[in-house]
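--- STAGE predict ---
source: upstream dedup step, 1 unique chain passed
mode: sequence only
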Amino acid sequence: MTIPTTVSVAPADEYPADGHTVPEAMPVKAWRPPMGWNSWDSYGTTITEQEVLDNARFMAEHLKDAGWDTLVIDAGWFDPNAHAHGYSDGTPLCIDAYGRQIPDEQRFPSAADGKGFGPLADAVHRLGLKLGVHVMRGIPRQAVHENLPVKGTALHAQDVADTEHTCAWNHDNYGLKRGDAGAQAWYDAQVDLLASWGLDFLKVDDMQTPFFPEEIEAYHHAIERAEAAYGRPITLSLSPGGWVASTHVDFLRGVSQMWRISDDLWDRWEDIYQQFPRLARWAPMQRTGHWADADMLPLGHIGLRAERGDDRQSKLTRDEQKTLLTLWSMGRSPLMVGGDLPTSNADTIALLANPALREVTAGSSGNREIVRERLFAEWNVEESFIGELIAWTADAADWADGTTSAHACGHYGAIFWTGSEPYELKGNIQLQSFVGIDQRNADWTLTDLWADAPQSPDGIRSDVRIEGEGEDRVIRGTIPAHGCLWFALD
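--- STAGE serialize ---
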């Protein structure tokens, strides 16, 4: 199937005339799962302009060639009283005359004189990267209390707000009257301001838990209008993801490029383990331009001034980090790392620089879990349970931008082990499980996709191979605790 490289933009006469040029077509947004950095795991609500630039420059120098190209400023960029480990509930925010959030000039000095994030976006773009921000569903309570006008209308904030329709865990905003033209006008005005700064990515929070289809659709329409006005595509990412049903997939594809499928993820093995069934459910539904998102990667230097936890390098072991990156890649989830890049340890950066991450997320199809078995030290004695053996496969495919896959005639495979001690494969997994019964006797070559990455400090080396002859060939290797084997077959 040929994947289009452009999409149509609605005619200009569907939008208010504002003097902007409307392009005839735009590139497909998020043609591969986005790869980038988000400030939340390291800085919470307190990120500064200099820290964004430091991460942007590091990404451009060390990770851009491996596919990392987006930076997202998470919550609280408009809060002059932002602090670590939580939100500043009830304090004044930085808003304009229409109630729209604007950057705190103390933390983002280039935003002075009404420039917003324009100068910062320009600096990021000069590095060949993209810039995005986080916003909450709804309208700032401050705008409602002051009853500020809704730009472009005769309405005011109190006409469009729903003061009962609020977020359970962030108190910056009231809701908007769902399905109301005035509410749409407020979103249109907010997104128009964000787009005028040259932003490429919007992470819109409190949209999915509970699930608010009217609000999501309104934001989608606001982005369409802004894209037509400014000629720049904007990727929409929806959060959070608790209880998001896969029955919503057709709707989500129609209105967004990314949607979370879990609540916040941190550097705990249990959090990673819980993503196995979620990604197994969503992976077969991944489509070009529309991606189920397993959440940020809590890797590297996190917790500097974050919502939770102390200043630390990620508590995940080296093998748990490889498992996370492998599972996300095989599930074609977006990859948004949370650690402060310049101060993350070198081994983490080396893992992120693995070209297989982009190769598999951009150039695979048919991604799915094929084996999941509970194993016991004593046959079927529940008390002797030692872990789960989980296998995934995917077919190599050309990229949607026309790039030929490095393994265009082959397959990708991953074998995960959830136990707390190393596990040696003893013929459990046959080669034909990945290449198919019809091709099991072909001349297959295996490439270890983690071979050049930093190995486990406990002495277990990456070692995955094909053993046996003909139809009896199996995948062999020793899998570290909470680890994986990741490979390509040609």
